[in-house]
Amino acid sequence: MTVATSLASLAIDDSIQLEQQGGILTLWLNRPESRNAMSLNMVTAIQQVFSQIADDVSIRAVILRGRGGHFCAGGDIKDMASLRVEAMNTGSLQPYVDFNRRFGAMIEQVDQAPQTVVAVLEGAVLGGGFGLACVSDIAISRDTAQLGLPETGLGILPAQIAPFVVKRIGLTQARRLALLGLRFDGKTALDLGVVHQVAPDDAELEQQLADTIQQIKRAAPLASRATKALLHRTLNEPLTQLLDNAAEQFARAVAGEEGQEGTMAFIQKRLPNWAEE
């Protein structure tokens, strides 16, 4: 596996690592000593990567994983301590506001990414890590993963991730999880709708990921990007307007290269040319 040249040129902090195999980019959260807690540097690095690949159709999917057996344990307490000093020196709460909002901007960027985003969840999936899982298109979890929203038990709010949690599992369940600060395993996460698949061991986790990647490769790149954008729009736009525009997109897709290739491949009983073996 090699890092793409364009991505390697970025000044990426070592809090993340990148691996690319064909059109699949794996982004590893790489602070295992802190269970991959989110530092400001990590947030910035993730934003850099997603900004760099936004218009790159060759990147079909981004796999989010954590080094050291954990996905992400939430925000970095050390960063919080330094913010406290800055706030005291300036007599203003703005450092806290800026830090928290920066994290929310990163979550929103991952949520809106045109690529298919797959989260592979192990160990701690807490706070901000839980929010990151909630904006993935596909979430695969070990049964032993520990997910939750511990913020209220720490005297703080899940401020930036709350909207994404509600979109993922609905207001009723989000209220219960956030207000009680509950932690739960992968099987419960499946029941709640946070994750889509649960693996009983590491080998099955890797197999489920491999199967998911294979399915992603069978979907047409441009059609996948347009479909994800369309699904996001269903939450915000009037239905008639949305359906009118969707019909126009459908027509362009049918007449386009992907539509013609996909139809011909179906008739000829073969894989389309974008489906890598």
Automatic annotation (TrEMBL):
<dbReference type="InterPro" id="IPR014748">
    <property type="entry name" value="Enoyl-CoA_hydra_C"/>
</dbReference>
<protein>
    <recommendedName>
        <fullName>Enoyl-CoA hydratase/isomerase family protein</fullName>
    </recommendedName>
</protein>
<dbReference type="InterPro" id="IPR001753">
    <property type="entry name" value="Enoyl-CoA_hydra/iso"/>
</dbReference>
<dbReference type="GO" id="GO:0003824">
    <property type="term" value="F:catalytic activity"/>
</dbReference>
<comment type="similarity">
    <text>Belongs to the enoyl-CoA hydratase/isomerase family.</text>
</comment>
<dbReference type="Pfam" id="PF00378">
    <property type="entry name" value="ECH_1"/>
</dbReference>
<dbReference type="InterPro" id="IPR029045">
    <property type="entry name" value="ClpP/crotonase-like_dom_sf"/>
</dbReference>
<dbReference type="GO" id="GO:0008300">
    <property type="term" value="P:isoprenoid catabolic process"/>
</dbReference>
<dbReference type="InterPro" id="IPR051683">
    <property type="entry name" value="Enoyl-CoA_Hydratase/Isomerase"/>
</dbReference>
